[in-house]
Amino acid sequence: MKIIYILIIVICSIGKTHSQQLTVFDTKADKLPYIHAKLFAKDNQGHLLHNLTPSDISVTENGIKRNVISVSCPPEGEYSKLSSVLSIDISQSMDNGEPVANIDIAKAAARRWITTFPADGSECALTSYSSASYLNTDFTTDKPKLTGLVNNLHSDNGTNYNAAFLDGPGAALSVIRRAKYKRVVVFITDGRGYGNDQEIIRLAKDLNTRIFCVGIKFVLPDIIKKIAEKTNGVWFEQVNSVEEIEKIYDHILNLSLSYEPCELVWETDVHCLSNRTAEVAINNPSVQTKVNYKVEGINLPKIKLSTSSVRFSDVPP
Description:
The protein is about 25% helix and about 30% strand.
């Protein structure tokens, strides 16, 4: 009986290692009143959900339930082994941030990646950069080693994007040349720097490398957004918490492994607010998340007068 009891405890513990997940991203509001977004959803076993329908999803904005027009999910496919480079900003500004320092959010992101990337021979390298680049470790499958090196990162000097990608021993696009498998760079920063975006993009394409970019408490500059977009990556900005960054790194990993997201469309109100928030929920398994999106001014409703003046007839008192 003791043996049976121990086995039950072990099985229950394993069952709790996964939790339901929902991540909504790449929200576009250029075809009002319809909002388009991408999503990844996982059940409590960590499996991606591929059979979602509009009745499975609800969207609420300002307490008002929106009409879900469609959700389309690709069939489940195979994934390839991964060679990833984590490129982490260690400039002095990374010590800033309340209640959690920016460097601690970046470390949490890296630890999440290390914990979740497949133990199938996939490999990971760790680099860091400020005004120069540093190779913390070349490609390895040793997760405890990677975690220990992440925990030991500390801040140093300014921010140089060329150092992150092109120059020095820790330049991500130099390290990625030694990759064995599918090539991905995950870049994180909290500040503006300088860099040769054309050369970064050219070299990444030559090396068949996707670049994903993340900004901590910070609106990414156009140079970084362009690098992500032109290398078939995705960018994220204004990430303010450990919880947010972990979700983002989860679905960067999904994208890196060739998992394709579901496409969600809902109908919103036509009104004049530019910055909006939607609560997206899946009914079974029960999980929800919030997504912020922006309607650009050119897409907002406008009042247009057909003449330059308006005349009213006399009104008796």
